[in-house]
């Protein structure tokens, strides 16, 4: 069974426990690695978007930033804490981030500068939002949208995922069919979008995550069995994650996820070493910039 997780969240963002508490649990489980990947979500209108009100009420608004400076400041403090812990820790915490990709030049430019400063060990690509007229809508907004609007949002969601994949900024892609958590996008009419996305993933060479947190509400991980079968046929590499928001969730349903993935024909299970060493465009960009 896989003995690490690279997709986890901590206190100060939307997790419930400290970096040290997560590490202690990973040590207790006899793991080789743990990575912490808090949300890096930057959009100028994020605080005007409907979900921000609920985030403030739920005390997790810290995951959203209006500017790159704001997000970088939060991450610099968080990474500093990890560096301090790592000085005496048996297993080192890898510094990750779970990033919402926005497909425009301002965002890409800001993000590449942020990476240059923060130097994370790895970056997870995510799509938690659909952008419409410069406002962000999350899965719950998609769920309650009128049918026509919802279909448009779902198509836009899959387009976002493909744009993020093609950016080549990410070490692996998170929870591909996230919207099934609100029971949306599970029908056969979405096969084409799923298949197109798998083709783009195959072309790019990026890995996908099998996220065991979906077992909380259904009998499969993210992504679904049918997407895992497509990924198996395309020989796409995977990594298993728990998306743990507290230490008790580390490693949850890993065995079940691995077994299901193998039954779907998935063969390439990556190690943290494979993930961290994936060549990313951002790194190439940074290197080329720093020469001038
Ligand atoms: Zn996520
Ligand atoms: Zn997450």
Would you spell out the secondary-structure blueprint of this structure?
Elements: E1 4-5, H1 19-28, E2 33-42, H2 50-57, E3 64-65, H3 68-86, E4 93-100, H4 105-118, E5 124-126, E6 130-132, E7 135-137, H5 139-144, H6 147-166, E8 172-173, H7 191-204, E9 207-211, H8 225-233, E10 238-241, H9 254-263, H10 272-276, H11 281-290
Parallel strand pairs: 1-2, 2-3, 2-4, 4-5, 5-8, 8-9, 9-10
Antiparallel strand pairs: 6-7
Helix pairs in contact: 3-4, 4-11, 6-7
The structure holds zinc ion (2 copies).
Number of domains: 1
Beta-strand percent range: 5-15%
Look at the structure and name the CATH superfamily: Metal-dependent hydrolases
Distance between the termini: 46 Å
Query: Which regions have little confidence, pLDDT < 50, spanning 5+ residues?
Result: 286-292
Largest sheet: 8 strands, parallel
Radius of gyration: 18 Å
Second CATH tier, the architecture: Alpha-Beta Barrel
Give the H and E element order: EHEHEHEHEEEHHEHEHEHHH
What is the share of helical residues? 40-55%
Quaternary structure state of the chains depicted: single chain
Q: Which ligands appear in the coordinates?
A: zinc ion
Number of helices: 11
DSSP E strands, number: 10
Morphology call: globular
What structural category do the secondary elements indicate?
alpha/beta
């Amino acid at each position: 069974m896989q003995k690490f997780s690279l997709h986890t969240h901590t206190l100060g963002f939307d997790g419930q426990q400290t970096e040290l508490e997560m590490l202690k649990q990973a040590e207790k489980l006899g793991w080789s690695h743990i990575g912490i990947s808090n949300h890096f979500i930057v959009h100028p209108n994020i605080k005007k978007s409907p979900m921000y009100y609920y985030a403030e009420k739920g005390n997790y608004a810290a995951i959203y930033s209006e500017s790159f400076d704001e997000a970088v400041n939060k991450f610099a403090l968080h990474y500093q804490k990890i560096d301090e812990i790592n000085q005496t820790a048996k297993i080192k915490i890898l510094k990750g981030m779970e990033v919402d990709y926005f497909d425009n030049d301002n965002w890409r430019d800001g993000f590449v500068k942020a990476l240059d400063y923060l130097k994370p060990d790895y970056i997870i690509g995510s799509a938690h939002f659909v952008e419409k007229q410069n406002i962000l809508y999350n899965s719950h907004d998609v769920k309650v949208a009128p049918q026509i609007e919802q279909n448009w949002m779902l198509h836009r969601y899959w387009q976002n995922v493909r744009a993020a994949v093609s950016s080549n900024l990410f070490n692996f892609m998170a929870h591909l069919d996230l919207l099934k958590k609100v029971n949306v996008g599970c029908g056969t009419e979405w096969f084409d979008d799923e298949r197109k996305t798998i083709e783009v993933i195959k072309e790019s060479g990026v890995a996908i995550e099998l996220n065991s947190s979906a077992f909380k509400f259904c009998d499969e991980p993210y992504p679904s069995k049918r997407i895992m079968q497509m990924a198996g046929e395309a020989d796409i590499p995977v990594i298993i994650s728990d998306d743990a928001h507290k230490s008790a969730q580390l490693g949850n349903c890993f065995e079940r996820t691995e077994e299901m993935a193998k039954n779907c024909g998935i063969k390439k299970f990556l190690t943290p070493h494979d993930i961290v060493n994936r060549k990313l465009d951002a790194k190439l960009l940074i290197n080329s910039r720093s020469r001038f």
